[in-house]
Amino acid sequence: MSNFFIPEWPAPSHIKSMQTLRSGGKSKGVYNSFNIATHVNDDINFVQMNRASLSQHVPNVPFWLNQTHGTDVIELPSSLLNADASYTKDKNIVCVVQTADCLPLLVTNKKGTIVAAIHAGWRGLLNGVIENTLHKMNLPSHELLVWLGPAISQKHFEVGNEVKHSFCEKHHEAEKAFQSVSNQKWLADIYMLAKIRLHAYGVNEIYGASMTNDYCTYAHHEDYFSYRRDGETGRMASLIWIES
Question: What is the largest CA-CA distance in the chain?
Answer without folding.
Answer: 54
